[in-house]
Amino acid sequence: MKRTLFFALFLLFSNYTFSQNFPKQVKLIEDFVPKGWKVIYHTQGDLNKDQLDDQVVIIEDTNPKNFRKNENFGSDQLNLNPRIILVFFKNKNQGYTLVAKNNKGFIPTENSEMNPCLEDPLLETGGISIEKGLLKISFRYWLSCGSWFVNNADYTFRFQNNRFELIGFEHSEFHRATGEESSTSINFSTRKKSETTGGSMSDDHPGNEKTVWSTIKPKKIYDLQNMVDEDYFEILGIERN
Predict the structure, then answer these.
(1) Which of 157, 176, 217, 232 is the most exposed place for a label (fewest CB within 10 A)?
(2) SS (HEC) of 144-185
(3) What's the predicted TM-score (pTM) here?
């Protein structure tokens, strides 16, 4: 996990909560979006096995005050507007019910003031998808300066126990210069984890992969509503100073 730790030192996520009030039920998804906010990602599919298309959106504030001039490496202007994920169940009659939201900073902003070289983590992945009744949220951490490593994190949530619980976590990383790669896969339902090291994406430098399996004891049940950026490090077992 040394390379992951190296990358983590370059990441400083925003650790704050955004205060927004949302109605519980509305006829149209657009009615959930607060004034001054916009939908930037959207997906639909059945999440609660009732054969109706549920909806998931990520919204972003458009406050001009959250755009900052950057005089360091990276973009000339940083968009620090907060993002919130909202999950809606389709009602059998009409309209939608808000069943989950996360406004705790789990969904990263487009840019980072502390790491201006970090590209938008949602840009390459599309952010959200629904596959076989499961909600998947994907982040890609790519820095144009400061690190050769690219990290991918995929979270899989299932609606159970009246909430969206994290049942799977996939993490991979590779070095853009050497092609070295490693990955971690965690199944929270079976409590099994696999860690693969020694991989290579380079034809000139073939790797020597080794996979180690272990049983995990999660510190808590991770659910979408309460996920925070620090959970990334906790799940990977990285201690931050």
Answers:
(1) 217
(2) CCCCCEEEEEEEEEEEECCEEEEEEEEEEEEECCCCEEEEEE
(3) 0.89
